[in-house]
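User: Can you predict the 3D structure for this chain?
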Amino acid sequence: LEWEVPTEGTVGGLIVLTLHIRNRSPTLRSLRLSFTENDAFLFCGHRLLNFRLPPTFTHTATFHLVPKCPGAVWLPPVSLVELPMGGVGAAQAAALAGGAAVPEETREIVRPTQRHRVFVRPAGPPQPAAQRAERPPDAEAQPGPAAPPEPLAQGA
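Assistant: Here is the predicted structure, written as structure tokens:
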């Protein structure tokens, strides 16, 4: 399992999480990829995938998450389990798997204890691009020319 995870995001912005699952065994695998609940993120789309992965193939799964709170936030834990060949008899499953043993029960491949952290910035008010281009970020720190003094009023 390989992760493509951004290191930072913004509250309310979209974070795209990509997982690459490769079958390095000589057998067909029936797999379930899922995420556990997490109060720091909303999911846009699915949180659970069931799929079969032939030998030497790679499956790419993309998930869209929206952070709800700022700070260093843990991504939702992922779980990858191997499932028994559902709806397929033991002889057929062994034939599909090239004669190799096929699991009769679910077997955990990736434990939900393997976690990743993302830094989430607070959402700020958007600035128009023209304002950002006109004023350099350190404009306040640079002293400009002094304004001429105002003339004194006569008769005061």
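The first strand starts at residue 2 and ends at 4. The helical segments are 90-96, 129-134.
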